[in-house]
Design goal:
Layout lengths: L16 H15 L10 H9 L3 E4 L2 E4 L1 H7 L1
Antiparallel strand pairs: 1-2
Helix pairs in contact: 1-2, 1-3
Length: 72
Amino acid sequence: MAMTDNRTPTPFADFDLERAIALRWTLRDIKGKRLKLSPVSESDLSTLTNLGLVEMRDNVPVLTQAGHDALD
């Protein structure tokens, strides 16, 4: 009997493993408010914004609900 995986696909499925890991760490840094220690690159911020995982509030990146879901 074959097992099926009913989980929703990761928003990072179209990226290579190294890039997907880097983007997840960036999400964790944003969530943990560690931006002074680990500044977010413009490229990562743009990618995460385009994926709908991050939005800007008062010039500070914050996770959307989809961003929180991607880390769960």
